[in-house]
Structure formats: structure tokens, C-alpha cells
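Q: Hi! First time doing this. I have a protein sequence and I read that you can turn it into a structure. Is that right? Here it is:
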Amino acid sequence: MGRHRGRYAEEPSRRTRRRRGRGGAFAALAAALVIVLGLAVAGVYMFGQSEGCGGSDIALDVAVSPELAPALDSVASDFNAEEHQVDGRCVYAEVRQVDSANVAFGITGAGATMGDTDSDVWIPDSSMWPRLVQSQAGDAVITETGTSVARSPLVLAELAEYADESGDPRTWTDVIPTSAPGEAAGSTVRVADPARNSTGLGTLYLVQGVLEENSPDAQTFNTHMTAALQALHQGASPDEEAAFLAFSGGTAEAPPVMVMSEQAAWRYNSAHEEAPARVGYVEGDTYYLDYPYIVRSEESDVTRAAEAFRTEVRSDEARARILEQGFRGPEGEVDTSVLTEDVGFVEEPPSELATPSEGAITDLIRSWNQLKMDSRVLTIVDVSGSMLAEVPGTGMTRMQVTSAAAAEGLQMFTDSSELGLWEFSTNVNGDLHYQETAPVRELQATTEDGTTHRDVIGGALASLEPLPQGDTALYDTYLAAYQEMSSTYRPDRTNVVLMLTDGDNDNPGGLELDELLSQINDMADPSRPIPIITIAFGPDVQNLEPLQEIAAATGGAAYMTEDPTEIGQIFLQAFSLRISENQTE
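A: Yes, that's right. Below is the predicted 3D structure, encoded as C-alpha cells:
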């Protein structure tokens, strides 16, 4: 190979030799050359068998999560210099920074990828990725070695300037809202997109575990989990770099909070020494990034080369370099001169939450993506005469309470969601029993004077006025709304009809239930679902069964409460349909 040439070269002899005859000299020289060449060949052969490398090198391609790559690149340099061999061939490890989700989706085809995702060894940031691969691509070569190269638990980071240093213990549900918007105030919690980031996905898993432990029933769990997912959506960034940027821009009025690994917090502080983050450890178990050593080849020479490098990364020298980069070792050990106490790091490793199963990981990602999909909702509000009745204990009419609750529910939608508003009773618009008060548009869209559609919807809700003599043309309005959403269907969105009413159908001569269901059945297309969700409230609702039949026919839901102030919480239950459907798939 050239690199060993010269190690065995001899210095020429300086002794004086007697002259020989030219013929004898040539013969002696020829004989000497034969001997020297023979010895040289034998020497090279012996060298290749004992100390040096013979034949071609084995290039071991090692794809590593970017934050771990600097430490392992240094380890690989030492490894390569030591000239480890397999069958007399030198093994050279080449460490490449590759995003963990990029590799996982490159194998499964379940998501967008960038660049080359093939490798001989893969060290992702979390065991969740190889488990996801095994569940979605069963024929993929994924050999778990049981080696955790490094570890880093998830913690809560706050800008030191605004950090809560009261010392009061906090749980994950203290930090992440699990109730309807407006019912609990708090900071926006920053996370990187859980669909592509282990820290974000680990955060969902943490919250799910706490809620499962503390929820009395499945409906409560689904409702609270939906609220948590929506809260995290508000603070989600596409990647860690964007999340860091959003986190660093926090103010005293909106103090930033971010879930990140210990090592990410150390990395953040290394780049933001002028405004560092303070680390906090939340009560209870936490999830660890565990950086598993995965072999992706079945070729004998490659697997043995991978085993040689695995031995190297488990050495004391390698571990010291890993700890220098803000990680914990496989047993939780830490370099306290790196993860320092002055910004909140602790030496004792937090208790650990086990890695979720393949099915749990898939369900979490699906739930996140389902709620991530923008909604397209036509909201219909009852303005019949009964909405003038006062809600006991509030000093407000049903109309006022409903408008306030609907405005609160408006906060659950992203700016890119589409919403529209109708009011209905009987003959509100000539012979029609319904009337559009705001078209279905993106909430971030603006009018000519710069008013956002979100504000248009909010203003329209606040200005709704009941018709004193109006009745409740419920079924006719359902049909018109279903027809409208069907004709304007958007396949890239969740298309929903949301009905708020305080009474049963009351429209003599109007559409009957069987006629409504028949016409909906004629229009319905399983590939273009339009669920109808009804929230019925007040003592005038005598029979929920017809509304349940309509819900069943469309894949929706029907809720009833005597207290319209509960509408906000029911909004969450309605949204949680996506989670409960996900769990039954």
C-alpha cells in the first residue's frame, strides 16, 4: 500500500570490498539480487501476515447522529492509526454525520430523505428509530448489538434570565397544558418536530405515560392527550436548529421553555454563552437518547470490522472523548467539568423511562401527524329564540356563553387552518334556514384592510344575535352544510362540519331524519370523509339519538351537556376523535 515502505529498508554497507573480476562480479551481483528479492518478497508476505495489512482495505462506513459525530470522528482517527485487521486487511472507519430520521425513512420509505442513507454501521440518537424500521421494513438488515455508545436524558431548559428557580417540583403535565386553551396559562413549550426528531417524539412519549397513569378512563386520556398535542404543535419547529432560534428569542412576557437533551442544552450554551439556558429536571421518569450501535451488513468481513470498531467505541479513551462533548456514558456517568452545576446539571442520572415499543412509536407519530394536518371546518351556530335563555349562575344568555366558548375553541386552530361560520334557525335568509356570516378561509388570510380571517371569525361570533321567533331547522341545515363541504372538499385537510345547538330539530314541513340520512348516504364517499360533529347543550335537548345517528353516518360524534360553559372541553373531546380512531386502526 505504500504506507509501510521503508520500515524494513537496510542502510547500504560502508565496508570496503575486494575487487573481483568483472564476470565474477556480475555473477555474484545476480545471485545477490535473487537472494535479496526473495527475502524482500518473503518479508513483505510475513509483514502482511503478522503486523501489516495485505490486500485491499476494508472501509467501514459509519453513519452517526450529527451531535455525536465529532467525538466518534476523533475515536475513528485513533482506531485507523492502530491498523486493526480482518483477514490481514486493514479496517478504516469513516464517520459521517447523518440525521437519524433521514436514515430511518431512507430504509422504510415512510418519509422524505436527503442524501445517502446507506451505511455499514448506524448510530442513531435513539433506539426508537431502529425499532420503527423493524416494524415498517421487516426485511431490512438491522442488527442490534446491545451497545449504547452514549446517553443523554431529556430535560427542561429555560433561558437563565427568566428561569424559575423556586425549586418547586414540576411534572411534565405541569409544563405542558392538558386542558382546553384559556383554562391554563403557561409558556409556549418548544420542541423539534416529533415526526423527525427523537427529542420531540420522546416528549410525546413522556406525556403519554404520565396521562395514562393519571387518567381515570380512555376518554379523559384522549381529551388530555389531544390538548397536550395541540399545545406542543403551537411551539413545534421543523428541526432543532429552528427550535433553538425560537427558544433564544424569548422575552419576559413570553418566557421560553424547551424540551431538549442534556447534551443539546450543553451545545446550546456553548453557542450562546451571553444568554445561556438553565437546565431543570422534571419529577418522575424521563426519556433517554441512547445512541445504539447498529450493524447493517451481513457480510462476514464487514460485520467483523464493525465488531472491531464497536470494541473501540467502548474503550475508556473513547468514553472520555464522548463525555467531553456533553454526553453521559453508558452507565450514566458524567464529566462534571463539562455538564456543570452552575447551569443546573446534576451528576446523579435521572430515572429512566423504557424505550417504547414499535407499535407505540408508530401510533405516536400517526397521532402527531393527524393533528398536524390542517383542519377545514364549517362551524354552524344555532341562533333560534331559545338561545336567549339565561345560563344559570353566569348572568349570560346561551348565545353569549356559546359565542365565548366558540371563540375559545378558535384558539385550537393553526393559522393555516381554514374556518367558516354559518348561523341557522328558521327563515334567517329569506326562505333559507341558514346564512353564511364568514366564508371558509385560512385564518391567516387578510381582508383588504389587513384584518385577519381569525379576527373576522372572532368578530362574527361576538356579534351573533338570536332570532326571538326562530325555530330550529336542524336537519335542513345539516344537509346544506354537508353539500357545501362536499362540493369544496380539500383532500389535504381534515374536512369537518361542527354544529352547536341548544335544541332538537323543530321545523314543521322540513326535512325528516330518514330523508337527511338517505341524502347523506348518497353523497358520502369513504375516500372523502366529512364527519359531522355536534355539540348539543341545554335542557331543551331531549333526545341525543338522532344526532348520534347522523354522527355514525358520517364518522363524526355527538356530545350533549346541560352546561354550555363546558363547550371548550367538549371541543377537545371532539378533536380527540383523531387519537381514538388512531388507536383502533
